[in-house]
Amino acid sequence: xSSLPPLLSSxxxxxxxxxxxxxxxxxxxxxxxxxxxxxxVGSVEVVLRTRQALxxxxxxxTALPNLLVGAGTILSAADANAxxxxxxxxxxxxxxTPKLLEAMIATGLPLAPxxxxxxxxxxxxxxxLREVKFFPAHLSGGIEMLKALSGVFRQVKFCPTxxxxxxxxxxxxxxxxxxxxxxxxxxxxxxxxxxxxxxxTALAAEATAIARQIKxxx
Length: 218
Ligand code: 3PG
Known about the structure:
By secondary structure, the protein is an alpha/beta fold. The chain is built from 9 helices and 11 strands. Helix 3 (77-86) runs parallel beside helix 4.
């Protein structure tokens, strides 16, 4: 097995937030990323859910070199490798299988593979991983589930994603076993479509202020 990549938490700087960027064009992706960065966000996850997602990763890396740019919705070894080639600095997946974990680890990039059950966490743990994405966080038990997991998986830290918004961000961030919080609430599709970049910046600034009070990454 390949040696383990560095921890994602060692890369995330500033507020412990990981907003999702879903963009139809690289130009749109850069506009979203800039709006988020203007609101104090330091890390983003570009999801592989549009045809231009890989080009979007490359474009953001070039336009905003100080932003940490990862790739999400990784479902295969081919996805993982293509994202690395496009310039992704870390990888996130919605699920975990042995094949997917091995492929993601083999890229050498920090990763947060998706888990929703104790058995999936244990599988990632067996691979030596200590940081995972908890998805879909709200539907999988949310805050209470993360508290229950903290008792048994003492060394594992989570990036909860799914069903998180400004209303419950503080509660998730306050958990000791949460290292960053992800989601799409800072980049709503209607604001992106209407190119309301100022409103995205305002949402990001609000979330950044909440995060700075509770959890700021190293
Ligand atoms: C993800 O890709 O992590 C989820 O779709 C994000 O969930 P959310 O839209 O509820 O934030």
